[in-house]
Every structure is written in structure tokens, then in C-alpha cells.
Amino acid sequence: TPMYFFLINLSLADACLLSTMIPKMLANLQTQDKSISYAGCLAQMCFFLLFLGLDHFLLTGMACDRYLAICHPLHYTTIMTPRLCALMVAGSWSVSGLDALVHTLLVVPLSFCTENEILHFFFEPNRVLKLSCTDTLINDVLLYVLTVILGIIPFVGIVFSYTRIITTILRVPSAEGRYKAFNTCCSHLSGVSLFYGTGFGVYLSPVSTQASWKGSIASVMYTVVTPMLNPFIYSL
Q: pLDDT averaged over the chain?
């Protein structure tokens, strides 16, 4: 039941993430008008950070749920109560919203030239900061600090959870028991691998690649393809 509760929120976050970028992208392709207003840029960046961060935290919460279900099955129902699940989801929404709001509000005071061009189909904070005509040191420092705190630390939690899950599964004496235990988390592991694999492929690539059309195509994988595949992965 907790996993289904997390899946509902993950599906909502995926649908909202797609709605943040796809309508504008389709309108650009249809009208061949690739312009966007300053307010539209800030709104798209804010909602992109909100729902991408929400995806990130929900996947972390689901990894914690799988860890408790497999490594501490006798205590699972007493720990993963509906109240705790609701608090985890509410915390994910709150932290993601605060992170998106901080980045957006720090971009507002910056000055930009009359016309700017960005080789991408949506606005990421690092690309927006590069277009500014003013000093963006504070924004850059905050971007990297929040990325480490809100990005790397939860990812380490997912890695730790699955390390313990795998070691626990390997200690199961019967092959049928190992298969049953692994089957309860294989869909989530597939979603995590797809999300972080494509994300790291984009952000750990050279800067020259990120600023090219190859970088834009790679970004489509984790911002468009991955949210579209998640419903198929979890339903199958």
C-alpha cells in the first residue's frame, strides 16, 4: 500500500513535469516561433525544478520503503504507517518547492541583455545564469551547494538502501525466495536506473557536449522519455 501511495504521487509529478515543457516545445515546432517571454522563462524554470526535485525525493522515499520491506519485514507495517508516508510525501513537496522558489527568486534581480538565445528546449538554472550580464557568483555557489545537499545525499541513501537489499536477498536460502524478494523492487530499480543513468549522462558530460544539440537530445531522455516510461515500468 505505501508503494502504491508513492506511485500515485510519482505519476502526478511525472505528468506535471511533462506539462511544464512539452506544450511549449510542441507550440514552437508548430509555429516555428521559438521565442518565450521573461516571465514564461522564470515560470518554466521554477516548475521544472519543482517537479524534477519531487521525482528525485519520491524515488528516494520508495527506496526507503523497499529497504524496510525486504530488510525489516516484521517491522514494516509498524514503521511505514499512513502518517509517515503522508509526511514523507509532504516533505518532498515542501523541500522541492522551496528549492525551486529560492533559485527562481535569486534569478529575478539579475540583468539580461535585450535578446538572448539558448540552445535547448527548456530552461535550466545553469543555462539561464550564463545569459546574465551581471555577477552570478552567489547563484552559482548556491546552485552547487543545494545540488550536493538535495541531490547527492538522497542518491547516496538510495545506493545504501539497495546495497543492504542485495546483501539481504543473497542470504535468502531458496531461489524462489530470492526471486520473490527481488521481484518486489525490480520495477523501482529500473525506474531509478533510468532516471539517474540519463541524468548523470547529461550533467557529467563535457561542457561542450551539454551546450550542443547532442546535450539537448540527451536531456530529452531524462525529462521526457523517463517520465513517459515510468507508468509502463511500474504497471508491468
A: 82
